[in-house]
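As the next step, I selected for study one protein, both as residues and as discrete backbone shape codes, as given directly below:
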Amino acid sequence: MSERHVEGPLQPGDRAPNVVLDAITREGKIALEDFRGQSPILVGLYRGLHCPFCRRHIAAQAQLDAALHEKGIESLTVVNTPIERARLYFRYHPLPNLLAASDPERISHRAFGLPNIEFTENETEWPHKVSMNVVMSMQVDMPGELPGPMNRPAAAEYLNNKDGYEITEADQRMAATGQGQLFGQFLLDREGVVRWSFTEVPEGGHRMFAAPSPQELMSAASQVAS
């Protein structure tokens, strides 16, 4: 497929592009076009599984799958992880009824307008460039998960150690080019039009590593399903 380049994340009212990706949790391909005219779908576009924050967001989205299905809404998780690595991970960390796809080239993220931040020495132009001083000043506070507020690299290392997640060569390849990839969730109606979204892009970086509350997401789902 030809890539579509978008200035900023897709907004409510925008028609989502079709993307075709390798399925992780089943054989074959997954295309967004397959859901059009059939059902609404929640599309979660995440960094690779090497990102402990995204692993938690993925699990949180999966926990809502049953409630979404009750409303007739499908759910798709997309990760920047090569297919074999992703399949191995989900084999040992299964999430019931998870529909997931592999996008190591981040085609879907670009198509939905999610930036991949460049880390710089001293230049910040959010959401395209961020200096390492700014990155180190971003505090992540996850009560129950972290012993206290920590900067992003320290928090990621702590959580990976806590999870026993071993960074492989495949993970390193993804991190080398996509460490700054911003994530987003997009709720599409059955015609493929964005009706709700949550991304890390707004608020100058204050949304980094955050996620919508289940209540916010399910409220949006109720409106799309009605």
In short: Residues 1-5 have pLDDT under 50 and may be disordered. The longest strand covers residues 74-79. The chain is about 30% helix and 20% strand. Residues 24 and 88 are 9 Å apart (CA to CA).
